[in-house]
Specification:
Distance between the termini: 40 Å
Number of helices: 13
Largest sheet: none
Length: about 325
């Protein structure tokens, strides 16, 4: 299909009043930065796991530190009671799934190179596509199913079951990604009924409650160096969230979403310079196939759902337009 022509100055839609125009290059830069700090967060976690700290303790302390950073936002909106919800079971399930995903991924990094675990983790968009049929009632055409199949071929290229390269730890990122995808499906199901802060509060608290018993079993007091890594993990988490939000406020989701796959590049670079690991050719080929499949699934979903691609289609403007639709003047 031919690429849409760029809008001329005359045809370019104007942003709604009070909304700044899109800045796509800056948005891409923010998203690349977000992906870097998220990957660095995984690198710090891998370093802690390599020093002998249990994955469950790492995730427990990460959630505890993030909770401290989240507290000012909760207090700021205290009178609005942001914790109120009519769907506590869904929130708890989402929190357990996400913390399970994070814990399994740290376990995987104990045994696998960062870039290998990251590449396998790119299967999650394909899981979301498959799970959206029974749980969201969405229809997936033959083209997206073909992309899902191609993505799983990429997984097999990385895993190479039956060869000397394969190890059981490679299954951990697969299960981690499945938990993550299930959490995203629950998030989609809560669209329109639950606010972002409500989801964040419930996910954090339920995740903390779930991980505390596991995190204290093999507890050992972190050293000064380990505390610095843990603080770095929390800072990376918050910085990554901030940069992601900024990115999606400055450009349409459909424009910048493919740049999320830069995570694999960052993982390879961090693996090389921090851990001295180099991906082999089949891993690179499998990762590339997963990335291509994921981008194609995104592309088809954009065509089917009509996600905004024009300048002036950022999340801020779409939200503003939706608010105007709900409150016509």
């Amino acid at each position: 299909m031919a690429r849409p022509q760029a809008a001329t100055t005359v045809d370019r839609p104007s942003p709604p009043p009070g909304i700044a125009p899109d800045q796509p290059l800056l948005a891409i830069g923010f998203l690349l930065g977000a992906n870097f700090v998220f990957t660095a967060m995984d690198g710090f976690a891998k370093g802690l796991a390599g020093s002998g700290m249990a994955a469950e303790q790492i995730i427990l302390l990460r959630y505890a530190l993030v909770s401290v950073l989240l507290l000012p936002a909760v207090l700021r909106h205290w009178h609005g009671r942001p914790w109120r919800t009519t769907r506590p079971i869904a929130h708890i399930a989402r929190g357990v799934l996400l913390i399970g995903s994070a814990t399994l991924f740290v376990h995987a990094m104990v045994h696998l190179p960062l870039e290998t675990a990251t590449a396998i983790g790119f299967v999650s968009p394909l899981y979301v596509t498959a799970l959206s049929i029974p749980f969201l009632g969405e229809k997936v055409g033959i083209r997206r199913w073909a992309a899902v199949g191609a993505g799983f071929v990429g997984v097999l290229l990385i895993l190479r079951p039956g060869s000397d390269v394969f190890q059981l730890a490679m299954l951990l990122p697969l299960v981690s990604s499945l938990c993550w995808a299930a959490g995203l499906i629950l998030t989609r199901q809560m669209r329109g009924t639950e606010g972002p802060l409500t989801i964040l509060i419930w996910s954090t608290v339920s995740g903390l409650v779930a991980i505390i018993p596991l995190g204290i079993i093999d507890w050992r007091t972190p050293t000064t160096a380990e505390w610095s890594f843990l603080v770095a993990i929390a800072i990376c988490h918050v910085a990554g969230q901030y940069l992601t939000i900024r990115a999606f406020m400055l450009a349409s989701a459909s424009l910048i979403a493919p740049f999320s796959y830069s995570t694999l590049v960052w993982a390879i670079l961090i693996g090389v310079f921090a851990f001295g690991s180099y991906p082999d050719l089949p891993t690179l080929m499998g990762g590339a196939l997963l990335v291509a499949a994921g981008i194609y699934v995104w592309h088809r979903e954009r065509l089917v759902t009509g996600m905004p691609t024009n300048p002036g289609g950022s999340i801020a403007e779409v939200a503003e337009a939706s608010k105007d639709d709900r409150n016509p003047t």
